C-alpha cells in the first residue's frame, strides 16, 4: 500500500501526540497548550552531519527561544537510547523525541518512500524504505500551526525559525 502523505498548513490545529524523550519520559504536546510556543522539527537520523549541525544550531539559540516562550523539540525515528547518546555526545539542549513507528511523522506528513538500494544501485528487496523529510512546524500557545515548512536545509534554518518566532504576536 503506498504511503498517504498529508501536508499540513498554517492555521490548522497541530496534530496532538505523545512520544518518549531521550530519557524515556513521555512528552505530550497538549500539556504545553496555553504555556509555550513549540518549534517541532523532524530530522532524518541521529549523529549524521546535517542533523548534528541542525541540532547544534537549535541548541545554541536555546536561551533566545526561551525568551520568547518557545520550546524546541526534535523528532526522528531513532530510539530513545540513540537520542540520549546523540544528545550527550554533542551537548544538545533541545528535547529529542523518539517516533520509531513513524506515527507522529505520518500525522505531520514528513515521511516519504525512498528506494532502498545496494551499493550497485539495485533495490535490496524491492521494498521502498520510509525516510523523514527534514521539516519544521511552529505551533503557537493555542495549539495552532503558524508555520509548516517542508524540505528545509539544516544549516541556518534554526536562525530563520527564531526570526519567525520573534515576528509572532
Structure description:
By secondary structure, this protein is α/β, with parallel strands linked by helices. The protein has one domain (18-167): 3-Layer(aba) Sandwich (Glutaredoxin). The chain is built from five helices and nine strands, in the order E-E-E-H-H-E-H-E-H-E-E-E-E-H. It has helices at 49-60, 62-67, 80-90, 103-107, 157-167, and strands spanning 18-20, 26-28, 37-42, 70-76, 95-98, 111-117, 123-132, 135-139, 145-149. The strands form three sheets. It has a five-stranded mixed beta sheet. It has a two-stranded antiparallel ribbon with strand order 1-2.
Q: Quickly give the structural class.
A: alpha/beta
Output the CATH topology: Glutaredoxin
Strand content: 25-35%
The H-and-E topology, N to C, reads as: EEEHHEHEHEEEEH
Strand order of the largest sheet: 5-4-3-8-9
**Amino-to-carboxy terminus distance:** 43 Å
Specify the CATH architecture: 3-Layer(aba) Sandwich
Radius of gyration: 16 Å
Give the proportion of residues in helices: 25-40%
Shape call: globular
Name of the CATH superfamily: Glutaredoxin
**Tally of strands:** 9
Note poorly predicted spans: none
Largest sheet: 5 strands, mixed
Count of spatially separate domains: 1
Report the total helices.
5
Instruction: Give the averaged pLDDT, no decimals.
Output: 91
What's the CATH class label? Alpha Beta
Amino acid at each position: 500500500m503506498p504511503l498517504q502523505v498529508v501536508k499540513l498548513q498554517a492555521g490548522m490545529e497541530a496534530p496532538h501526540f505523545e512520544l518518549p524523550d531521550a530519557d524515556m519520559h513521555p512528552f505530550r504536546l497538549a500539556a504545553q497548550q496555553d504555556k509555550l510556543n513549540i518549534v517541532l522539527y523532524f530530522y532524518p537520523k541521529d549523529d549524521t552531519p546535517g542533523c548534528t549541525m541542525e541540532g547544534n544550531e537549535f541548541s545554541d539559540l536555546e536561551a533566545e527561544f526561551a525568551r520568547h516562550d518557545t520550546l524546541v523539540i526534535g523528532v526522528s525515528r531513532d530510539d530513545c537510547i540513540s537520542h540520549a547518546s546523540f544528545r550527550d555526545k554533542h551537548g544538545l539542549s533541545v528535547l529529542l523525541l523518539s517516533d520509531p513507528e513513524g506515527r507522529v511523522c505520518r500525522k505531520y506528513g514528513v515521511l516519504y518512500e525512498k528506494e532502498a538500494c545496494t551499493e550497485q544501485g539495485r533495490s535490496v528487496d524491492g521494498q521502498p524504505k520510509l525516510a523523514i523529510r527534514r521539516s519544521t512546524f511552529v505551533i503557537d500557545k493555542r495549539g495552532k500551526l503558524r508555520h509548516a515548512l517542508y524540505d528545509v536545509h539544516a544549516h541556518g534554518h534554526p536562525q530563520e525559525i527564531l526570526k519567525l518566532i520573534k515576528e509572532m504576536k
